[in-house]
Design goal:
It is a single chain. This protein has 18 helices and 26 strands. Helix content is 27%, strand content 20%. Strand 18 and strand 19 form a beta hairpin. By secondary structure, it is an alpha/beta fold. Helix 2 packs across helix 12 and helix 13 packs across helix 17. The protein folds into three domains: 295 residues, TIM Barrel (Alpha-Beta Barrel); 158 residues, 3-Layer(aba) Sandwich (Rossmann fold), CATH 3.40.50.1700; 114 residues, Immunoglobulin-like.
């Protein structure tokens, strides 16, 4: 049953609140009135969180306790809260495909529906703030937290972010952008110092946050790491000059959990609520007041955005629960399936897919009787377990019946004798960890044995980020990237294998041949030749702060590989289909400050399918180092076989700008620009030039 989300939501108008219920000016005026009525003790308590996952409240003065929960890809139901009287936990929450898979859809409308579905479950469960979306850039494919983000490209991430924020907040659930900023490694993340230049910060890492702020987001969370020598959560330049003054954010800034250390800086430097709050922070604040190092007005300035945001978004004066939304779970399951269906990326296919009826399949590998997902430790923010979970064995048996034979440890002879071999491979990524780019040695050895033994071997990869596939990719009959597909995503993956679905997913990251090719190859400090093996089984305080040098500057992802002339295994934006498309007749015109692009897309294959038209722009004679080309627009289009349509894209002249470090502002050079239209960063079908004056 495929229903439209907007249609069903029309039955629940009481939850379809405005994203912001009043102007910021009025919200801050009311917040000042409330702050004036608070005692000093109450003000000090507002500096920090309450009971791990709440903002402090004074209900008798009109400020209830506000509950927030993780994560971007669904709701982490925490049943171990120190104070369970504050909220009635949901009995279940839908496990959606991970955000990386959502990004692979290149479908902003679907991102909006995804966020609306998560937001509805928040409203049903009394969750006022959802701690997402995560916006950090996939600079480093070993980062165990990439699955929570939207890939390597700032434009793709920005577009998905805006759609997500609008969808989430249309339900009345407040969104929180995280982690501000340059938190692209999980290796001892509380001890890393991201050394990043001004151009890279503005061109690569800030755009998704700017998009979320422009979409009206309520909250921003600072990150664990230092940025150029100061902890992000107490960095005055970052939180005041950049986030507030430059990006125009007017909501509440919370720290990431246990990520700030200097109480005077916390009070003065731009964070509004320390989460969950050090036990000593209130007494330290009292001491600072007594010594005259901070004033009560400093405390007022710190806490007023938190209260103003609660007022602006109507979090203080509404019914906490909307239980009628529990009836929408079947719809949420459909949204989860739809995201997986559009996010599956077919990387390689020698013609074996879709599988023809009557083929016998030996099914083996890592994820057979479990749903591949992130680490399930409940302390990890993105642990969403879901319900009615469908495993690969379940889905394959449903589709192919007794033609599927499950063999957990097949011999080489078993593999060679099989008609078709389908191997499930992948990784279990999680917060707080870097993980090797290569698969475990035993799994890598097994895959190489299988592709050598049987040319009809299909590899299904479930991972939250990129993995090394260099030694077996070209020997496999097909390679499918299935990410973490959510509770029912295995049905979508198997529907792609059978041909009931035509794949249309595109890589939101570049998959390199070797990690030594990556600009993030030196992320970990010298001598760090190990990876964490148990969740938070280490003492960060024993590790010295180390620099993570963003030496590649603006050359992140495909920008790096193309500009440096390094050929990846698979390029950004790549993904195969069971049909074929052709782009032709491009035109580029300047109309005022708008650049209008048209191109004809034709389905030249034999079945209906979807293609993502991607627009890349490059400056022909740049005055500073610029990437060879950059994604500036995209559109996903579905076409029947033999049909064609004119695809229209539009960008602003300012989208051609780079960040000028001399003027500390955006700059568009006059001169010729090349507009490249294609189906991946490497598959360019046609180009046009335009003179900008």
């Amino acid at each position: 049953m495929k229903f439209l989300l907007s249609f069903l939501l029309s039955f629940f108008p009481m939850v379809m609140m405005a994203q912001q219920k009043m102007t910021w000016e009025e919200a801050y005026r009311q917040a000042d009135e409330i702050v004036a009525k608070l005692t000093l003790d109450e003000k000090l308590h507002f500096m920090r969180g309450y009971s791990e996952f709440f903002f402090y409240g004074v209900p008798e003065k009109g400020i209830p306790y506000i509950y927030h929960s993780d994560a971007t890809g669904g709701i982490n139901i925490r049943r171990n809260l120190p104070d369970t009287t504050m909220v009635r936990p949901l009995e279940r929450s839908t496990a959606f495909p991970c955000p990386h898979m959502l990004a692979a859809t290149f479908n902003t409308e679907l991102a909006n529906k995804y966020a609306m579905a998560v937001g509805e479950e928040c409203r049903a469960g009394g969750i006022e703030i959802l701690l997402g979306p995560g916006l950090n850039i996939a600079r480093n494919l070993q980062n165990g937290r990439n699955f929570e983000y939207f890939g390597e490209d700032p434009h793709l991430s920005a577009m998905m972010t805006a759609a997500y924020v609008k969808g989430m907040q249309s339900t009345g659930t407040a969104a929180c952008l995280k982690h501000f900023i340059c938190n692209e490694t999980e290796f001892y993340r509380r001890r890393s110092n991201s050394v990043v230049d001004e151009r890279a910060l503005h061109e690569i890492y800030l755009p998704p946050f700017k998009a979320g702020i422009d979409a009206g987001v309520a909250y921003v969370m600072s990150s664990y790491n230092q940025v150029n020598g100061e902890w992000a959560g107490q960095n005055s330049w970052l939180l005041k000059d950049v986030l507030r003054d430059e990006l125009g954010f007017q909501g509440c800034v919370m720290s990431d959990w246990s990520s700030v250390y200097d109480t005077e800086k916390v009070i003065k430097n731009g964070v509004n609520t320390e989460m969950p709050g050090r036990k000593t922070v209130i007494e330290e604040a009292r001491k600072l007041l007594a010594e005259g190092r901070v004033t009560e007005e400093d405390i007022n300035r710190m806490i007023r955005p938190s209260i103003a945001t609660g007022i602006a978004f109507g979090l203080y004066n509404r019914e906490k629960y909307s239980p009628e939304l529990l009836a929408n779970y079947p719809l949420h399951e459909q949204v989860a399936y739809d995201v997986a269906a559009e996010g599956v990326v077919l990387l390689r296919n020698n013609g074996i897919l879709p599988l023809q009826p009557g083929r016998d399949i030996l099914l083996t590998g890592r994820f057979l009787n479990e749903v591949p997902r992130t680490g399930d430790n409940p302390a990890a923010s993105a642990a969403v377990k879901g319900y009615d979970n469908v495993t690969l064995v379940d889905a394959m048996t449903r589709k192919f019946g007794n033609r599927v034979k499950v063999v957990e440890q097949p011999t080489r002879e078993d593999l060679a004798a099989a008609d078709i071999v389908l191997i499930s491979a992948g990784t279990i990524d999680m917060e707080s960890f870097e993980r090797p780019f290569a698969l475990p040695a035993s799994e890598e050895k097994f895959i190489r044995m299988a592709v050598d033994a049987n040319p009809n071997t299909i590899i299904l990869v479930n991972s939250g980020s990129g993995i090394r596939m260099t030694d077996w990719n070209e020997k496999a009959a097909a390679v499918i990237y299935g990410w973490y597909p959510g509770q029912n995503g295995m049905n979508a993956l198997v529907d792609v294998i059978s041909g009931d679905l035509n794949p249309s997913g595109k890589l939101p990251v570049t998959l390199e041949r070797e990690f030594s090719d990556s600009p993030a190859r030196n992320t970990m400090p010298d001598g760090a030749e190990f990876y964490h093996t148990a969740y938070r089984a280490y003492n960060e305080k024993l590790i010295s702060v180390f620099d993570v040098n963003y030496d590649e500057s603006v050359l992140v992802g495909y920008r790096w590989y193309e500009t440096k002339g390094i050929k990846p295994l698979y390029p950004f934006g790549f993904g195969l289909s069971y049909t074929a498309f052709e782009l032709s007749k491009p035109s580029v015109k300047l109309k005022g400050d708008q650049i209008l692009i048209q191109v004809t897309l034709k389905n030249i294959g034999s079945r209906e399918g979807s293609e993502v038209v991607q627009l890349y722009v490059s400056e022909d004679n740049p005055t500073v180092l610029r990437p060879r080309k950059e994604l500036k627009a995209f559109r996903k289009v579905k076409l029947e076989a033999g049909k064609k349509m004119i695809v229209e894209l539009a960008i602003d002249k300012n989208d051609l700008a780079y960040w000028d470090v001399e003027t500390h502002d955006w700059k568009v050079n006059e001169g010729k620009y090349t507009f490249s239209l294609g189906t991946s960063s490497a598959d360019i079908h046609c180009t046009r030039s335009l003179e900008i004056k």
